[in-house]
Amino acid sequence: MEQKIKEFPAFKVNGFIMLAVVVTLALFGGWYLVSRVQGLEALLARGLKVADFISGDEFFVWLIATLLVVVIPSLSGFFSVEPNQAVVLVLFGKYVGSVRESGFWWTNPFVSKQKISLRVRNFNSKIIKVNDAEGSPIEIAAVVVWQVFDSAKSKFAVDDYSEFVAIQSETAIRSLAIRYPYDSSDETEAPSLRGIPDEIAHALQKELQARLEVTGVEVIEARLSHLAYAPEIAQVMLRRQQAKALIDARRQIVEGAVGMVNEALNRLSTEQMVNLDDERKASMINNLLVVLTSEQTAQPVINAGTLYN
After folding, report:
1. Per-block average pLDDT, block size 10, for the chain (309 residues)?
2. CATH 3.30.479.30 occupies which residues in the chain?
3. CATH superfamily of the domain spanning 121-229
4. b or e along 93-104 (b: 16 or more beta carbons within 10 Å of the residue's beta carbon)?
5. How far apart, in whole angstroms, are the C-alpha atoms of residue 67 and residue 31?
6. Of residues 79, 75, 83, the one with CA closest to residue 100
7. CA distance 116 to 240
8. Are 223 and 243 in contact (CB under 8 A)?
């Protein structure tokens, strides 16, 4: 089984120092080359052969070889790293490390270099249609905030880590949606997508991190950005929610009215303001409940007493 690759620092040298060395060698070699060419022209004018000149100056030959073999190839070893960026180095098919420090660097000129962005990114998923835990079709989408923390895994674990993040994010959203209902009823009070948004976001982030660990990606935040019933049942569910809200409002109004009536009767009895028999209490309770629970303003009726002939 192939060993998993993890990021480690690569060999590098300050690019400005190496640039100064290369420029110095190039200037010295150029100066020496020009001087020897001038000397060669003088010797040729006196009738000597070029072969005799080269055989008599081994340093000139070594200098030319050094310029061709060392100085010129070393130019490809220079590279720059921007902030929040990593450069993955590969030598003849073997991973030899990554450079994260921003700046101008020099390394083995025979390595290939691949830049990986370490910046924080957003992924906005498409609106996905899926059935929730109760079988109701819903539309759901999420936004995922992520960044690369291991450049080696991102480069070698998958073909395209950005596409991998997108596909696995949509898969995790579907998996999350089928485990929870859209909304919970008052009887069960079970966790739901709409009822516990913070817990749902944490569960989505945890599942995404488990799926994307292999790519060296860290999920910073994951949160639902869209949640609604599918169009074919949206109107029915809207009427259901409206009916539920109306029932809850009526229940709260009735409970408040009963409490006010009970408080009024207790005060009348405690302060002995008036003595009421059972029939008059029932009539008073009925009138108060009608006034308190009615949607329209009650019209007062003044009782002036009873007229006897």
Report:
1. 75 91 77 65 54 53 66 84 94 93 92 94 91 86 95 92 93 91 69 87 93 93 89 66 68 75 73 66 68 62 53
2. 121-229
3. Band 7 domain (3.30.479.30)
4. eebebbbbeeee
5. 12
6. 83
7. 51
8. no
